[in-house]
Amino acid sequence: MTDLRTQVADLLRDHWDGQRGWCVPNPATYPHLWLWDSCFHAIIWAHLGDQRAVRELAAVLTGPTPGGMVPHMRYGGQPPDTWLGPSHEASAITQPPIYAHAARVLDSLGFEIPDPVLAGARAGLDWLWQHRRTPDGLLVVVHPWETGNDHSPRFDDWANPGHRHRHNRATRTRWNKELMFDVVLDDHGAATGSRSFAVATAGFNAYCAHAMSELAALTGDTELGVRGDALATAIDTLLWDEDEGLWSDRAVVGGGEPLGGDEDLWINPVVDPPADSVRIPISDGVMPALVTADAGKARRALAQLTDPDRFGAPFGPANVARTHPAYDPDTYWRGPAWPPLSYLFTLALRRWGLDRQAEEIAEATLAAVERNGWAEYWNPETGAGHGAAPQTWSGLALAMSAAGS
Ligand code: GLC
């Protein structure tokens, strides 16, 4: 069998668009640039020792940005049929800012990062701080697509009030598309709010705090470091769920019936009673282990990644606790294992010295991609692939293994 490195190099090369300078995640299903996917591609290129690492990171950060916001998609040609904002080049919403961690990885592997790329990363994080911060110091997403986890069970009280766990993929996708029309755009065409959906998710806040500390470590930007620490503290204070041993999400706008008449964008009181689906045990709720200073919380959450009664599964952590009624190992963001999440878990585990568990996840991921031909995501019980295949971010299997060697 060809070695892992060669297989991953072939995977990325086959998806590379040399004219635009990015990989498409999959040419049929995902023929554009997606923010966090391309950051993961840059990380994979860097592990391959390929200069395209820098080009792909630059493609994320140095194209047009509505007022500084880094768009969740840049279009490779015609915009998609779904309405994603007024621009013909890029979407009006954002996605997890993995670019700062990517920059750190590139730097650590000896790549030189051009100043405009670092400046774009700083501007993107600044934009989030200026435009998405709640009065109590958390950051909100204004659309599920901004989290990466498009159909999170934690959003069920918005999507299907009263019918939690009755997930239908097509209906949910339709709801997500309609929700784009509730997004509030500023003069630059960037989404700064929503009339019906704003959530401070554990995952997104963790990604942002992690990004701030990664970029601060890389550039010596103390203001950014202070912001990252403040955000990590707010996550622990406001999102920790002692019963679940995880960080939950916080409803900021919507999440129940009725929404109420206040049109005050996301600085709205939450509905009464507040959404409860925000506490469903999903593995995104482990992500603040990337940034918390609290060893007790981190270890309690991280232990669940390999606990079979929670997320622990033979082919990598399930995205929903295996014992929870919402768990569906074959459906999209309702239970499968996802390579980008598994990669981030290995970072969090290594941060806390849990190298053996990180290695276990890296090996489970490798076993899965060998079985399913580099799928987008898979059944964590059997490794059976789902979604698009081959999908570029499954090449993270190489980065996960390399990080431990
Ligand atoms: C799906 C995923 C999202 C990803 C995109 C491209 O929409 O939910 O996280 O960025 O596909 O791979």
- Find the structural class using helix and strand composition: mainly alpha
- Small-molecule components bound: alpha-D-glucopyranose
Helix % is 25-40%
Let me know the number of strands: 12
Order of secondary-structure elements: HEEEHHEHHHHEEEHHEEEHHHEEH
- Percent of sequence in beta strands: 5-15%
Q: In angstroms, what separates the terminal alpha carbons?
A: 21 Å
> Based on CA inertia axes, which overall geometry fits?
globular
C-alpha Rg (nearest Å): 19 Å
SS field, number of helical segments: 13
Return residue spans where pLDDT drops below 50 for at least 5 consecutive residues: 257-269
Major sheet details: 2 strands, antiparallel
* Average pLDDT figure: 93
Strand order of the largest sheet: 1-2
Characterize the structure shown:
α3 packs antiparallel against α4 (99-108) and α5 (115-131) packs across α8. This protein is mainly alpha-helical and 405 residues long. The chain has 13 helices and twelve strands. It has helices at residues 4-14, 35-47, 52-61, 99-108, 115-131, 156-159, 169-179, 202-219, 222-239, 295-303, 339-351, 355-372, 396-404, and strands at 16-17, 22-23, 33-34, 73-74, 183-185, 191-194, 198-200, 240-241, 246-247, 250-253, 377-378, 385-386. Strands 1-2 form a two-stranded antiparallel sheet. Helix content is 40%, strand content 7%. It is globular, with a radius of gyration of 19 Å. The structure holds alpha-D-glucopyranose. Residues 25, 30, 34, 36-37, 148, 150 line the site of alpha-D-glucopyranose (GLC).
